[in-house]
Design goal:
single chain, 682 residues, SH3 type barrels, Rossmann fold, 5 domains, ten-stranded mixed sheet, six-stranded antiparallel sheet, 32% helix, 24% strand
Length: 682
C-alpha cells in the first residue's frame, strides 16, 4: 500500500473508524487478487433468508414483504435486540448495525438471515416418513437446505469420505431461468451476474473439495455461458494438474424451432459440457475406470481375415460367399461382381452394410464366428523372434495373455485382433449387441433421452432435468465401486439419487447418494401465491417448493421401484450452548447416523447409559463405560463410537479401550470444533 493511501486511511480513521475498517478490507481484497488467472469480485457477505427458523434475540433478520406484495419496505439486515410480548403479539426491537437506525416489527413479519461469514451449528430434523425396504442396507439421504450450509454440515459427517460429486448448477444464461443470489434473482440485466456466479460457485467448490477422498472426483454440468470461466475457476480450486476431461454431451439436434435459425446461417447449440476434476492422482492410480461403448452401424472394412483351425487364413468375404443361406441373400440383393475374373462373386466390403442389414443369415454367421474374423495390428514386443510361418497364424502366450500372430509376405510379424474384442452390448439409448467403439470426450445421442426425460421419476419438472442414463454412465465410468458415496448438492428433482438407486437395483450394489436441494418456489409460482395473500413460511407456500412438491415424490417413487431406502431431512440451525449442554441431541442425532454410514436404526433419543445399533454406538454417561466397552467388543460391525463427555482425559481413556476398527469421536467437542474452525471463512 502506498504512503499516500496509508495517510488518507489514517485521516478517515480519525473521524470514522468504521468506514476506515471497511476501506482496509476492500484494499486488502484488491491486493490479494491474482495478477493473472481468473479475477472476480467476491461479493461478500453472501447470505440467505431462512423461513421457518424461529427468530430470537441476537439474530440477524430482514423484513418480509407485506402479504400480497413482492417487495419488502427495506432490504437491510437488522439485529434483534429484544423481544416483548404485547397485546398485538410478539414484537421485536431492531437495530441496523450499519446506520444505527432503530425499529420495531412483529416477529411474524421477520425472517432469520444466515450470513455466510458467521459460524453455524447445524442439525437435521426428519421431513416426512423414510422409505425403508431393506433393513441392513445403507440409506440414501435427501437434505432440504441452503447447499452452502449443507456442505458445511458434511464437513462433520463426510470430510474426506465422498467418492464422487456430480452437480448441475445454474447455467447463468441470463434467460428465463434466472437464479437466486442473496435472495434476489440474477438475470441478464445484472451487470455483476458473472462475478456473482463465480463467487457463488467458488465458495461451494472449495468446501466440496474437502469432502472428496484423495481418489475422488467432481463432475460439473455446464453450458456455453460459463463453461470457460468455470474451467478456470476449477483449475484454481483443484489445480491444473487435476483436470481430467471436458466432455461434450449431445443434448439436442438441429430440429424443430432450431431449424429456422440454422437455415438462416446461425450455428445453433446442440451440446452441453461436463467438466471433470480429480482430488489427486489417486483417482487414476487407485480407481479402475470402466470404458463406455458407442454402437457402430457400419461394417469395418479393416476386418477382412478369416482364421481357419489349421492355422491358415483366408478372406472372410469368401467364407460368407460359401455359406448357402448367405449366398442366396447375396444373389437376392444383387451384391455380386458384374465383371472381371471374380465375376459373380460377392462384392465384399462395399456390400457388407446392406448384407448385414437385410440378411439374418449373414448376421447370424458373423455373430457365430466373431473369434475367427480379424484384422492385423501392431504386434507386441514379445513377438519378436517367434516362429510364425508366412500366411498362417499361431497362438503366442506371454505375461498371462494370448496373442494371435501372423507374418506377411514381406516378413513383418503382425498381431491379429479378432472381432469378438469389438462386439459387445453398447451403452446407447437403446443398447444393442454389435460392433462398438470406446467412447471418448464426445458423448453422442443424449438428445434421445431428452425427448423422454420429463417422464423419468413420474413427477414433472421442467427446469433443466438431466437424463438418468447420463448420470449412471458418468458414475460407471468414474468409479463403479458397489460401495461408492455419491454427492449432488444441486439436487433439483433428484436425478442423481434416482440414478444411483437404479444402479444398485441392477447389480445389487450398496452405493449411497447424498442429495442436497432446497424448497425454492419458482418465480412464476411465487407470483401466483402472493396474489393469494400467501408468503414464504406459510404451509400452502412451502408445499409448492421443489423439495416438497418434486424431489420427495419422485424419490419415493424411485425407492419403491428399486427396493431402496431413502431418508428425507431438513437442515436446522442450533444454539451451540444447548448442544454443549446435551439439550439438542435429537437434532444432532441424524448427523451421527450419517457419519456412521446412514445404515440401520438411528439413535434419536438419549438415555442414562448408552445405546448401540448395527454400525455405531453412543455413550451418554461415562459411568456406564465398562458395560459400554463390553457391548462394543461383543457387537460385530461397529464403525464409530461417540462418547459424550467434556473431560478429554476420560474420553482418551475410553477411546484407548475400543477395538482398533472403531473410530472414537468425542461429543460435543468434535462437532462444535468443526464449525468454529469454519467461522469467518467466506
Amino acid at each position: 500500500m502506498s504512503n499516500e493511501l496509508q495517510s488518507l486511511l489514517a485521516r478517515v480513521e480519525a473521524s470514522d473508524p468504521g468506514t476506515a475498517t471497511e476501506l482496509r478490507r476492500h484494499i486488502d481484497a484488491l491486493q490479494a487478487r491474482r495478477q493473472f488467472g481468473l479475477n472476480f469480485e467476491n461479493h461478500t457477505p453472501e447470505s440467505v433468508a431462512l423461513t421457518g427458523r424461529p427468530v430470537t434475540v441476537g439474530d440477524k433478520v430482514r423484513f418480509l414483504p407485506p402479504r400480497g406484495e413482492e417487495v419488502a419496505e427495506s432490504n437491510a439486515t437488522w439485529v434483534v435486540t429484544s423481544i416483548s410480548l404485547t397485546a398485538d403479539g410478539r414484537i421485536a426491537s431492531l437495530l441496523d448495525p450499519r446506520t444505527k437506525d432503530e425499529a420495531t416489527r412483529a416477529v411474524e413479519d421477520l425472517v432469520f438471515v444466515a450470513d455466510f461469514r458467521d459460524p453455524i451449528y447445524p442439525g437435521l430434523r426428519v421431513s416426512g416418513a423414510p422409505v425403508v425396504h431393506r433393513d441392513r442396507t445403507p440409506s440414501h439421504t435427501v437434505i432440504n437446505a441452503e447447499n452452502y450450509h449443507a456442505l458445511e454440515l458434511m464437513l462433520f459427517t463426510h470430510q474426506g469420505a465422498v467418492d464422487l460429486i456430480y452437480i448441475d448448477p445454474p447455467y447463468n444464461t441470463g434467460g428465463k431461468t434466472s437464479w437466486l443470489y442473496n435472495d434476489d434473482y440474477v438475470d441478464k440485466d445484472d451487470k455483476y451476474k458473472n462475478s456473482k456466479w463465480l463467487a457463488f460457485m467458488d465458495r461451494r467448490l472449495r468446501l466440496a473439495r474437502k469432502l472428496l477422498k484423495p481418489s475422488g472426483a467432481i463432475m460439473v454440468s455446464i453450458g456455453d455461458d460459463e463453461q470457460h470461466r468455470l474451467r478456470m475457476l476449477m483449475e484454481q480450486v483443484f489445480g491444473v494438474e487435476n483436470h481430467v476431461a471436458q466432455l461434450a454431451v449431445e443434448m439436442s439436434t438441429t430440429s424443430g424451432p432450431k431449424t429456422t435459425n440454422a437455415q438462416q446461417g446461425t450455428i445453433v447449440k446442440n451440446v452441453e459440457y461436463v467438466l471433470i476434476y480429480r482430488k489427486s492422482s489417486a483417482f487414476d492410480t487407485d480407481i479402475r475406470h470402466t470404458p463406455l461403448y458407442d454402437g457402430i452401424e457400419k461394417w469395418d472394412a479393416n476386418y477382412p481375415l478369416w482364421l481357419n483351425d489349421d492355422g491358415t487364413t483366408e478372406s472372410v468375404y469368401r467364407r460368407l460367399d460359401e455359406e448357402p443361406d448367405v449366398r442366396a441373400d447375396i444373389e437376392k440383393f444383387e451384391l455380386v461382381r458384374d465383371s472381371g475374373k471374380n465375376r459373380g462373386a460377392f462384392v465384399g466390403a462395399p456390400g457388407m452394410d446392406l448384407l448385414l442389414a437385410a440378411s439374418s443369415a449373414a448376421r447370424e454367421f458373423v455373430l457365430r464366428n466373431l473369434s475367427r474374423i480379424g484384422r492385423i495390428d501392431t504386434a507386441p514386443v514379445s513377438a519378436k523372434g517367434v516362429d510364425v510361418p508366412i500366411g498362417k497364424w499361431v497362438a503366442h502366450q506371454t505375461d498371462g495373455r494370448t496373442y494371435r500372430l501372423t507374418r506377411s509376405k514381406q516378413g513383418t510379424i503382425w498381431q491379429i485382433y479378432t472381432l469378438d474384442k469389438n462386439f459387445r452390448e453398447s451403452d446407447d439409448y437403446v443398447p444393442r449387441f454389435g460392433r462398438t467403439v470406446i467412447r471418448g470426450d464426445l458423448w453422442r445421442g443424449f438428445h434421445s433421452d431428452m425427448g423422454h426425460v420429463s417422464n423419468e421419476g413420474g413427477v414433472g419438472f421442467a427446469n433443466g432435468k438431466k437424463p438418468i442414463r447420463l448420470i449412471k454412465q458418468l458414475i460407471r465410468w468414474a468409479n463403479n465401486s458397489p460401495d461408492a458415496v455419491i454427492l449432488d448438492f444441486f439436487g433439483g428433482s433428484g436425478t442423481t439419487a434416482h440414478a444411483v438407486m437404479a444402479m444398485n437395483a441392477a447389480d445389487q450394489g450398496r452405493r449411497r447418494s447424498i442429495l442436497v436441494t432446497n424448497n425454492e418456489v419458482s418465480r412464476d409460482a411465487s407470483r401466483i401465491l402472493r396474489r393469494q395473500n400467501l408468503r414464504p413460511g406459510d404451509r400452502e407456500w412451502e408445499s409448492q417448493g421443489v423439495f416438497e412438491a418434486v424431489t420427495q415424490p419422485r424419490l419415493r417413487n424411485s425407492a419403491r421401484e428399486t427396493n431402496e431406502n431413502v431418508e428425507f431431512l431438513t437442515l436446522t440451525y442450533e444454539n451451540p450452548a444447548l448442544v454443549e449442554l446435551d439439550m439438542a441431541f435429537e437434532r444432532v442425532a441424524p448427523l451421527l447416523w450419517m457419519r456412521a454410514g446412514s445404515q440401520g436404526r438411528r439413535i434419536d433419543v438419549p438415555n442414562n447409559t448408552f445405546d448401540i445399533t448395527d454400525v455405531y454406538a453412543v455413550l451418554f454417561n461415562v459411568d456406564a463405560s465398562r458395560a459400554f466397552l463390553g457391548a462394543v467388543h461383543q457387537a460385530a460391525g461397529i464403525r464409530v463410537a461417540y462418547v459424550v463427555t467434556d473431560d478429554e482425559s476420560q474420553f482418551q481413556a475410553i477411546a484407548s479401550q475400543l477395538p482398533d476398527a472403531v473410530q472414537a469421536i468425542r461429543l460435543y467437542e468434535s462437532y462444535l470444533r468443526t464449525f468454529q474452525i469454519n467461522a469467518g471463512r467466506v
